[in-house]
Amino acid sequence: MALDYYMCDYSYAEPPKVTGLKNMVRLPTYADFGHDDYLIADERGYETLVYHLASQFLKTDHKGTIVDPRLMLNKVVRQIENSSNDVVVTTEDGKTYKADYVMVSHFEKEYLGQNILLVTITDDESRRIEKQADSKTKTEVMEVLKKMFGNDIPEATDILVPRWWSNRFYKGSFSNWPVHFTKYEFDQIKAPVGRVYFTGEHTSEQHNGYVHGAYLAGIDSANDMIDCFKKDSFNQAKG
């Protein structure tokens, strides 16, 4: 059971019964980049990587801080109106933004000596844990640890339980290639709808579920949009 969980549930966030073999046989990520896993230990936080990439394309000040007015954070999109001429995006604060094309995408630290333990749970168990009080979850964790290391271990000082299922931006989502899922269905997920394009790690066939999958898929999707924009501009000029 331990091997089964480590080889499947831990990596794909779902049990073997719903995970297709295509997603399990020699993962391209490990084949291409090696078998080591890395954690972000930068005290500035994970967002540092995101801002570093964004600063290569957006206007910054002399300190390297992004000041480009086109970057608008904490804007929750509530509606996208797609027409043959443009796309209008309405955010939760009631503001609207018009564009020729739109791209839709979905966006801890390792400290030595801090005695932090990470526990991964998936599927039905994750739903159960998320619904109960953190104090009860902490009690359950301590019971397991005492079975493993004896009753003389110190009590955990605190616990953090991310509520992935109830987060309105994620709703428990995680990319996994399910049983009977075909290449045709995968292509449909990332296919553009009019002037609205889609990207994210879930649109990366080789590296879905990983940060570099989102990065590489973003490049591919952006190039697809640019090609379409060029063709559209050419046809308008020709007409």
Automatic annotation (TrEMBL):
One of its GO terms (biological process) is polyamine catabolic process. It comes from Dioscorea zingiberensis. It holds the Pfam family Amino_oxidase. Belongs to the flavin monoamine oxidase family. One of its GO terms (molecular function) is oxidoreductase activity. InterPro entries: Amino_oxidase, FAD/NAD-bd_sf, Flavin_monoamine_oxidase. This is Amine oxidase domain-containing protein. SUPFAM superfamilies: FAD-linked reductases, C-terminal domain, FAD/NAD(P)-binding domain. PANTHER family: AMINE OXIDASE (PTHR10742:SF313), FLAVIN MONOAMINE OXIDASE (PTHR10742). Residues 30-104, 115-226 form the Amine oxidase domain. It comes from the Eukaryota.
